[in-house]
Structure formats: structure tokens, C-alpha cells
Amino acid sequence: MAVPVSAGYPQYSYNANPSGSAFIPEIWSGKLQVKFYKSTVLAEITNNDWEGEIKNQGDTIHIRSIPTITISNYTKGMNLSNQVPTSTPIELTIDKGKYFSVIVDDVDDVQADVRLMDIFTNDASEQMKIAIDGDVLNNVAPDVATANQGTTAGAISGDIDLGTTGAPVQIDATNVLENILNCGQVLDEQNVPEDGRWMVITPWFASLLKSSDLRQAYLTGDDVSPLRNGKLGMIDRFTLYVSNNLTKVTAGGDNAYHFLAGTRDAISFASQITNVESLRSTSTFGNIVRGLNVYGYKVVKPEALVDLYAAKA
Question: How confident is the model at residue 282 (pLDDT cuts 50, 70, 90)?
Fold first, then answer.
């Protein structure tokens, strides 16, 4: 905004006098404002064991599993019963694709004081990661093992309430730790290894953790309380990741989230940028840069994934 002037005195600011005698220009900074992006967690919670085997969208990878051998009782002289081991392969299909396509007119490219195409494509790269991250996080819950979800979770105990549609677990500062421990017990009962366990939570879930008994430093094994340093770190063998990519479920009157926990063995993800190209527009004077990312994902170890369906109390 220009400095006010007295009556009869000319205003030389361009903002107040864009035509005529404008001697004070508007200044456009060459430094762009920082843009904040959602944090992505996909690389930390999935495996890419079969990513090198895909080539095109529509490819299917047949993943062979190790069969379970039956152990039988033996008595001397008995006739042995031979087992023929069989297993059902899991199919990982590269059936999803996302793209971006941006154009910069030649006139804008020459006259702009910043490199527009670099700015646009860098943002496209971040948005691509966020879109794929959210797609996976919000669509794998239905494939969780039956014993790892619902109101009767626990392959052995069968009495752990992890919430269900219409009755999400109500989370507050008094029970937030208990629910993380429940997720750990569910994995323990499935004989899932302790190494590499993770859990994805929302910011409000993290805030409840910091206001719970976790604020006592000795509970985390750290020298400084999470209330002091803001870091949650590892709780009950879970590395915690805070994400805004978990989508709130509002159907059926619920305002809940599918909080996922597990190990990297649970979800296999395969992605490939099949084409990133720059070309001239055929309808105007300008350059186009576009990119295509094809990918697929599959819950390959349902017993290594937990679905805590919960809401903020």
C-alpha cells in the first residue's frame, strides 16, 4: 500500500496509479514463499522387493509363498502319511497410474524473472508423492487379517477391541498408550518379528500421546521427555510416523481413522516412472512437461498389519 498523500499532491505509486505518472514501481521478489507439503511415509512402511520386475502398467507379478508344513505325532512302526506342500501365489498388479502435465507459454518463459518450469515440475513431484502415499494408506485396511482388526482382535486372545464401523475406539490421553500396546500384542500373537515395526498416526493422536503418561522420560528410555523435545520416537517397538494423509471416515456417523501398524513385510509397493517428457505444444507457443507414474501395491502379509479404527474422544 502506498504512503497517503495530502490533497492536491500527486501519487507516484504504481499500485495507486497504474497508468500515467507512476514512478514508484511494485517489486516482485525473486525468492518464492516456502510451500509446505504433507509428510509422506510410504518409503518407510512398505517393501519394494518386487519393484525391479515391473515394466508397464497392467503387469502382474506372481509372488510365491512358502507353504506351511504339518507336524504329526509318531509312534514306532506306524505308516507315515506324506504331505504334498502347496501354496497359493499372491498377485501384485501394476494397475494404478497418476500423471501431471504442465505448460509454460514462450512469452511467460522469456519474461518471467524465475524459472517457471522448474518450479512447476518440482511441485508436481511433491504432489505425486503425496497422492500415491494417501492412496495406499487409505485403501489397505480391508486386507488386514481378520484377527488383526475389529472388536475381537487377537489370534490367541480374541478379546482386544480395535474398533469397528459404527463403534470406533474412543481415544483420549488416558488410554492412548494402552491402544498402542494392544496393537503390539496383536502382532505378537501372530508371531510377527519385533524389528522394523511402525505405526502411522494423526497429529491429534500424537498430541494425546504427549499429554499422556508418555511425558515421563523413563517410559521412552530417553533422557528428555517428548513433552520437552517434541519427538515421539519409538513406543512399544513401534516407530511412530505422524501423517495428514490418513483420511477421516465420516460414513455411518463415524468421525474415525484407520490407524495402521505393522512391519515392512506387510505391504509390498512397486512404482515406476514410465515416462517423463518435454515437448512443444501443438496448439500454442509453449513447452509442455508431463510425467506418468504407474504403480501397484498389495498386502502380502495380512497378519503383519493391524487396523486400529479409532476416533478422538
Answer: confident
Question: What's the predicted TM-score (pTM) here?
Answer: 0.76
Longest Cα separation, the chain: 119
Do 275 and 95 contact (CB within 8 A), yes or no?
Answer: no
Question: How far apart, in whole angstroms, are the C-alpha atoms of residue 248 and residue 149?
Answer: 18
Domains for the chain: give ranges and CATH numbers: 1-30 (no CATH), 32-313 (3.90.1690)
- 110-168 residue pLDDT tens: 766 667 788 888 888 888 889 999 999 999 999 999 999 999 999 999 999 999 999 99
DSSP letter at 288?
Answer: E
Helices 176-189 & 203-210 angle (0-180, nearest 10): 110
Whether residue 106 is predicted with pLDDT greater than 60 in this model: the reply is yes
